[in-house]
Amino acid sequence: MRIQKASLKNIVIERIKNYISENNLKPNDKFLTEKMLTEQLKVSRTVVREALISLQAVGILMIKPGGGIYIADTKLGSIHTILKHHYETYGVKIRELVEIRKILELGALRLIIEKQVPLDIDQLKEINESYHQTIKNNEDTKKFDRLFHQSLIKATDNATFFNFSEIIHEYFSLVKIDLIENQEALIRSYEQHNEIVDAIRDNDLVHAQKTMTDHFEPIFTFIKQMEEES
Amino acid sequence: MRIQKASLKNIVIERIKNYISENNLKPNDKFLTEKMLTEQLKVSRTVVREALISLQAVGILMIKPGGGIYIADTKLGSIHTILKHHYETYGVKIRELVEIRKILELGALRLIIEKQVPLDIDQLKEINESYHQTIKNNEDTKKFDRLFHQSLIKATDNATFFNFSEIIHEYFSLVKIDLIENQEALIRSYEQHNEIVDAIRDNDLVHAQKTMTDHFEPIFTFIKQMEEES
DNA sequence: AATGAAAATTGGTCTGACAATATTATAACT
DNA sequence: AGTTATAATATTGTCAGACCAATTTTCATT
Description:
2 copies of one chain form a homodimer.
Chain A: H1 8-22, H2 34-41, H3 45-57, E1 61-64, E2 68-71, H4 77-90, H5 94-115, H6 121-136, H7 142-154, H8 159-174, H9 183-201, H10 205-229
Antiparallel strand pairs in A: 1-2
Chain B binds a DNA duplex through helix 3.
């Protein structure tokens, strides 16, 4: 592997990143204009623009045509582009993503119980009741199902873990999967949610993880079936 | 939120991504040249270049000065750029990263044992012996420690899991942490590695996970100490 | 056939101009 | 004075052409 000689553009990128760091600029802060940068860095507008565009692409800056340049408030926004491309290029196996999700959710349960984080049991129950409603009304159930699992992860009091999980979830949602979900299976899913919440309330990690494992079982069965067919 | 009118640059970006998809281009494949793109898309070189630079920034293309443009060989590596910036801007708590690492490694052990993946026990032992050597010789121990944990994750037969774990690991390595590592503690670490390998060989998940938990304990103690001081 | 110099190709940087969009200043009106 | 419509200005987007730097290709020489 050859060491890439630093192009002017890359130097400017580094200087801009440092500038942001040193001046402690925060999301939505106004940044310098192209003109100011060309003058201060003494490079052509071309180079400045290319550096700015790179930084916009990775979600560090936000360029408003005619209105200036701002620090982006990226909540993983640009990561989506990368995941999508990665998925389309390498074709990730669903099984791999489900395995990861299971690991994360089992881990979340352990964190919640071991750390004894303050947890709003009622809120979880409430979300699950909404889930129950959509099931009974034959509406789209995904929203509340996801909200329930999101809330569990969020309860771990670990923002990085939450962000990371969201990335995985985002990735997972790229994969089209037609899991047959009859009413019966959904009701069972609802009951498992409740069982998990109860286990958390009782500080019963083993039970919580066992139920979560059961909760994941149908999708693994489905995947195994799919893999056998192909 | 206003819907951003598509700039020429963004249109070109979309068309290039589609082109890659449709022609099923794979990493390291040669892509079109700037000249070809300007002619075929009938836009200025400026626009083409800015689009290409955006796609390079997110790890979709790789531009070789003088040598052409290629499909990038990205293993989610460009996510690292984003996380790094995120870390430098918002600051991440070490505790959060260590918690995630623990979750991932406990999860890896479960995957390995539950799936009964073919596993080269001897190789793991060998790596750990090299680790032992560096400890005894007072050399830098990090390399083989990391290699050991990497090998565990790799053994799960889940490439996506491995890629994401690597991202966390890289993220973690950004954080400077001065864990006091005396010879005694390192030897204990070495022994735990061996114990984990033996537990895997014996399909003893509980023991493996218990040992791994112990393995993480010193760093949690250290972090707690640090948090109390500040 | 192997080598090495010359030519052509390709991406990097510069300059200057005009267009499209957003912001600011000004003028007109109530 | 305050509001609103309009004009002026500032800022980013796109274009064209030129030259530089790195790489690849061509081809004459050995």
